[in-house]
Design a protein that fits this description.
Blueprint (H helix, E strand, L loop, with lengths): L5 H6 L13 H11 E4 L8 E5 L5 E9 L2 E5 L8 E5 H7 L8 E7 L3
Antiparallel strand pairs: 1-6, 2-3, 2-6, 3-4, 4-5
Length: 111
Amino acid sequence: PIIANCLWTALNFFAAEPDDRFLDVGYALDRLKRDYYVIEDGFELGDVIAFLDDRDNIFHAAVYIAADLVLTKNGTSPLSPWILAPLADVQDFYRTRAATQHLIVHRPNDR
């Protein structure tokens, strides 16, 4: 079975019923582009933080909670639980994935 990943988690954060179409990375990325806008600061609960590599490919997403805390799902394994973690810790966890990673924060168009 397919297990939820970071994009599924981030894009379903406010959903009363999860949308499993977000398990399809192409669909999830398309919806992120269409249904969200980029913000520079003033982050709010539920904003989606996209981690990009040096080619601007998204390799991880997390949900902003408050202060420096994010909700993250690091991988698709059932042994990788959803956790609240400081954003800096998540960045360090993915440092080997992209040494020059950068973040883009997205907010749903309806907020």
